[in-house]
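pasting for ref
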Amino acid sequence: METFAQSLILPAILLGALGWVVPRLMARIFPEGVKPLFALAFCAAAVMTFTAMAIFLGLYLAHGMTLGQLFRLGLVDGLLHLARLGAASALIWAPVLVLSVAGLPKQWVEETW
């Protein structure tokens, strides 16, 4: 039988850590500046939502649910369910992502805030 920590705490810690890492990695690709910073924040939030959807899909599969059961009402309904879970998980990763993005201008060399 799985423990509480394995089923809830570890995925939450993973999402929180990814909320910090994803914007930092994306900052290597995006140019410096205020507008690119907002674009980076939006793209990082989208990446985190899709990542959370994948994590929830993995958790469903790890707990014995099949893809047929998850998508029994159709592909769109299954994806919407995972999207709602991914959006709800923003309660965990979004504050960390905001703090990570807010710290990026300190590392700028060419632009100023």
